[in-house]
Amino acid sequence: MMFNIRIVRPRIDSMIVCECENVSDARIRETIAKGARTIGEVTRRCGAGGCCRSCHPQIGRMLRNAAAATAAVEAEADSAPSPVAAATPAAS
Length: 92
Known about the structure:
Layout: E1 16-18, E2 23-24, H1 25-33, H2 39-46, H3 56-79, H4 83-87
Antiparallel strand pairs: 1-2
């Protein structure tokens, strides 16, 4: 008698980006958040991208996305009125 068994794995909110070193996107994002700015820095800090390099395009996209998000936050902060200017009454 044969059984058709399906193995159900729990959903995980991260995926493996670097198969060679078994490094997840969550680990790479954490490495970028801690200051890695190049693929080489990511490789040195967490190992991703150090073997076959097929994950370099994905790591590069993650670096660009993080840089764009940082730039957007900084631009928003720069366009906000300064607390001193907001507290100073306008001259008449």
